[in-house]
UniProtKB/TrEMBL annotation:
Compartments where located: Cell membrane
The G protein gamma domain, residue ranges: 54-120
A Pfam family that the UniProt record links to this protein: G-gamma
Purpose of the protein: Guanine nucleotide-binding proteins (G proteins) are involved as a modulator or transducer in various transmembrane signaling systems. The beta and gamma chains are required for the GTPase activity, for replacement of GDP by GTP, and for G protein-effector interaction.
Region (Disordered): 1-57
Descriptive protein name: Guanine nucleotide-binding protein subunit gamma
Family: Belongs to the G protein gamma family.
GO biological process: G protein-coupled receptor signaling pathway
Sequence intervals crossing the membrane: none
Extent of the signal sequence: none
InterPro entries referenced in this protein's UniProt entry, alphabetically: G-protein_gamma, G-protein_gamma-like_dom, GGL_sf
Length: 120
């Protein structure tokens, strides 16, 4: 039998119409929820709401905090603005892109050298 699907609980909730709960009932329900979350956290190796990673050392945690501070300090822009800026940059530098305007064969250092005579 699944504990969250018992007929007794269904009968209890069916007997109480929505919106007619007293503040005391809400407080009691909140306390039960906290207790079950705390119990679940102890089973999963958690202390309160913060997960504990036993393999992470203090030094690694400090490095992680530093990295997160650096990432949080970045100036963020909307994707639509970033895409527009990227398209404008590509349009401005299209003449310098060797994939769009190929390098002339006379200036290409990687071209295949032609042999004038082949020995058989």
């Amino acid at each position: 039998m699944v504990p969250w699907c018992s007929k007794d609980k269904e009968a209890e909730t069916a007997a109480v119409p929505m919106g007619s709960e007293t503040p005391r009932d809400e407080t009691r329900r909140e306390e039960k929820r906290r207790e079950s979350n705390a119990r679940r956290g102890r089973q999963q190796g958690m202390k309160g709401d913060t997960p504990v990673n036993s393999t992470m050392s203090v030094g690694q945690a400090r490095k992680l905090v530093e990295q997160l501070k650096i990432e949080a300090s970045f100036c963020r822009i909307k994707v639509s603005k970033a895409a527009a800026d990227l398209m404008a940059y590509c349009d401005a530098h299209v003449c310098e892109d060797p994939l769009i305007t190929p390098v002339p064969t006379s200036e290409n250092p990687f071209r295949e050298k032609k042999f004038f005579c082949a020995l058989l």
